[in-house]
Amino acid sequence: MTQAKNGDKVSVHYTGRFEDGSIFDSTAGEEPLEFTLGQGDLIEGFEEGILTMVVGDKKTITLTPEKAYGMRSEEMVIEVPLEEMPGDFELTVGDELELTDEDDEAVLVVVAELKENSVVLDGNPPLAGETLIFDLELVTVA
Known about the structure:
The chain is mainly beta.
């Protein structure tokens, strides 16, 4: 059987969980995730975990933050005066907003805290700093 390698289009069933066993994402009951290995569309450790698997293989991988979403960075947390925020909607903690950085690139941030005259925005990926465990099953390789 053919081993999965960079450039192959693959489909994978997976369940992602934290170290305490709680599940944060899964394809159970859904279509498998399809992607091309080596294009960098997914986190590094996930793609590395698929390499060399053959169709039907199942395995569990554990990814440190460095191979997943990286470590949390306090530099990605900013406090913005409310008067600098668009006034046409009401903010609540947990809201996701898309801002543009100085290079005109889109940046996704989450409202982390509301203060009397400011809002704290967190640009860290939600799973940053987490060790992630994935149960993988390679469904197809093309």
